[in-house]
Amino acid sequence: MWSRRNLADFRRCVADLLQDADVQRMHAIPQHAKGIDCFDHSLFVAYLSFSLCRRLGLDERAAARAGLLHDLYLCDWNQTTVGLFERLVIHPGMALRNARRFGLSGLEEDIIRTHMWPVTLRDMPRHRESWVVSLADKLCTVGEVCAFYRLARVRARLQPERA
User: Which terminus of the chain has fewer CB atoms gathered within 10 Å of its CB, N or C?
Assistant: First the structure.
């Protein structure tokens, strides 16, 4: 999973997105565990989704790009009165609206819109890649909360290569 080729191919898929100011703003948004921000989480989801889709012969590029953008809601929930369940339900739509400016494919839109299924029952994934990203999101969340993220040095492995 952590091969140089896999990492390089992944970085090529998301390079333009990583340079975007709104994507970089995700660093300021806390995520599931202390010390992990929305950018870290989204990059982890994107890479795991890319790797799984590559292994399964699915559209790895769409999975990587939509995985990176799946939580592009750009809202620090700690600064709002929105409850936890409501956040879970509304943030995919917020992320999708923000991500559309990247010219998403129908597949990428489905991935972002449905990544919280089954919480969002009416938005069941329609594509295999959507199921993969939804699963990766949940696996990454558990990995972050259980400290696997730190133990596996995920942040260091996924940092963009320096020239």
Answer: C
**Run of H or E residues at 58:** none
Could you tell me the domains of the chain? Answer: 4-158 (1.10.3210.10)
Q: 37 phi and psi, to 5 degrees?
A: -100, 175
- Contact, 152 vs 144, CB < 8 A? no
Q: What pLDDT, on a 0 to 100 scale, did the predictor assign at position 74?
A: 73
Identity (one letter) of the amino acid at 29? I
pLDDT at 87: 67
Which positions of the chain have pLDDT values less than 50? 162-163
- 60-69 and 106-114 helices, crossing angle to 10°: 50
Sign of the CA dihedral running 12, 44, 117, 88: negative
CA-derived radius of gyration, the chain: 15
User: What pLDDT shows up at residue 63?
Assistant: 98
Cα dist from 109 to 48, 99, 163, whole Å: 18, 9, 33
